[in-house]
């Protein structure tokens, strides 16, 4: 596994920056290993809801997990407010960094992640395939 570590700065959008990083780095199968930092806006989709919920304030990122690929991401965030109350859900565009986000992403050798329509769920779901290098053998 190859690892990438970077820091996001105040005002940047957490999800958009992660997706852009995966595209720039040509990551075929990525996982968020860790992320800590703070947000001034959170935008999450909670379980079994179609709409997103936005909160403004100051929040600590206590967990960010998920998968990254060239054609999308599936990320879940858990944050805490000033009282230490935790909340979390599906990360959406619009989560704005307050002071920092320290991110470590793992790139899985030998695999390719893709998002494809799934008839059973109605969503674009993760499909995992072995990576085949240019000469036809399995990479990694």
UniProtKB/TrEMBL annotation:
Record-linked Pfam families: PCC
Q: Record's Gene3D superfamilies?
A: Hypothetical protein, similar to alpha- acetolactate decarboxylase, domain 2
Q: Which residues form the PPC domain?
A: 1-129
Please indicate which superkingdom the organism of origin belongs to: Bacteria
TM spans, by residue? none
**Can you name this protein?**
PPC domain-containing protein
| Organism field | Fimbriiglobus ruber
